[in-house]
Each structure stands twice: as structure tokens, then as C-alpha cells.
């Protein structure tokens, strides 16, 4: 009978897996750092495939260290690196661009334009969020505007968007959940 919980902690600089028993005691852990990409000053990216591969690798290592198999896991929890944004092809699973990390400031000019147009208040009213490059909305706009072919694919419903937790769930479920 499955009686363990695995927590996948996908952070800004690395992936970690923690396995707990039914009493909440840590049984095993594993972690792995991954590459940070800085294409321009103020820009921060991650390779989505590296995020996935590092996360699944540490989950397997934690299971091995605990002497467990996937069937021993009753529940899974995910914590992740906030507003890091990933867009990927719905059919192939291939990311259309690197993940734009929550720290990235490339969309600050888009935010400034929205504020100058007087849209900050209505955006906050509708979303509960202030207009800031931290959040996903302007990152999606940047990808649609700057990555060739993505806007057309989006109009046809051929791409998916999510923060890192969505990307992990999509991969964990073999593209069945998003």
C-alpha cells in the first residue's frame, strides 16, 4: 500500500525532491542545480527541458535512496519558482522558447506602456495584480511578439502556456493534464 508523499521543489537555481512518510518525517532527499541563462543584462532564462530532466532525475534519486518505487507514492506536491513562464508546442511538447524567469526584466518597457495608457488600474482590478514584469502576462506577450511563428500557433490553439508547475504536471501526466 502506498504510504509516502513526494514533494517536488522546482526552484530558481535547482530542483529538489523530498520524500515523507505517513508521519511527515523526511525519508530521503535529492537535489541538483541547473544552468542559468543570461542572454542580455536584466534578462534571465532557463531551458525548460533541463528543468524537467533535473526534476525527474532528483525524484528518481530520492526514491532510490529511500529504497522505494513510484508505486509506493500516495501523493505528490509541487512547489515552484513563482512566475517563470513557459510556452510549448501542444503536439510535440517542445518549448517554443526558453523559460522566462520571474527575475527577468525584459518586459518592463511593456509594463511602462500599459501604465502610460492608463491601464494599470483596470488590470489590477481584473487580475488582482499590479502591472510588473515579474508576472506572466507580459512575458507571454513578449514571446508572442518576438518568437517567430508562435502567435500563429497560439491563434490555432497549438501551443500551451504555464508556469513551471504546469510544465511539470504536463510532463508527469504524459501531456494529459495542463
UniProtKB/TrEMBL annotation:
Single Gene Ontology MF annotation: glycerol kinase activity
Family under the similarity heading: Belongs to the FGGY kinase family.
Biological-process GO terms, alphabetical: glycerol catabolic process
GO CC list: cytosol
UniProt cross-references to PANTHER family, sorted A to Z: GLYCEROL KINASE (PTHR10196:SF69), SUGAR KINASE (PTHR10196)
KW Kinase (keyword) present: yes
Matches recorded under Pfam families: FGGY_N
Domain Carbohydrate kinase FGGY N-terminal: residue ranges: 4-175
Identification of the protein by name: ATP:glycerol 3-phosphotransferase
The entry's keywords: Kinase, Transferase
Classification via InterPro entries: ATPase_NBD, Carb_kinase_FGGY_CS, FGGY_N
Amino acid at each position: 500500500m502506498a504510504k509516502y508523499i513526494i514533494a517536488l521543489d522546482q526552484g530558481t537555481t535547482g530542483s529538489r525532491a523530498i520524500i515523507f512518510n505517513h508521519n511527515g518525517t523526511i525519508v530521503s532527499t535529492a537535489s541538483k542545480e541547473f544552468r542559468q541563462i543570461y542572454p542580455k543584462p536584466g534578462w534571465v532564462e532557463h531551458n525548460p527541458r533541463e528543468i524537467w530532466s533535473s526534476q525527474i532525475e532528483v525524484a528518481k534519486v530520492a526514491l532510490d535512496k529511500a529504497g522505494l518505487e513510484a508505486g509506493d507514492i500516495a501523493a505528490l506536491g509541487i512547489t515552484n519558482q513563482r512566475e517563470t513562464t513557459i510556452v510549448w508546442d501542444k503536439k510535440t511538447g517542445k518549448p517554443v522558447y526558453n523559460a522566462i524567469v520571474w527575475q527577468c526584466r525584459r518586459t518592463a518597457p511593456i509594463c511602462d506602456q500599459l501604465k502610460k495608457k492608463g491601464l494599470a488600474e483596470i488590470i489590477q482590478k481584473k487580475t488582482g495584480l499590479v502591472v510588473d514584469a515579474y508576472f506572466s502576462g507580459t512575458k507571454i506577450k513578449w514571446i508572442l511578439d518576438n518568437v517567430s511563428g508562435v502567435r500563429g500557433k497560439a491563434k490555432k490553439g497549438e501551443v500551451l502556456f504555464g508556469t513551471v508547475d504546469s510544465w511539470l504536471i504536463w510532463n508527469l501526466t504524459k501531456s494529459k493534464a495542463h
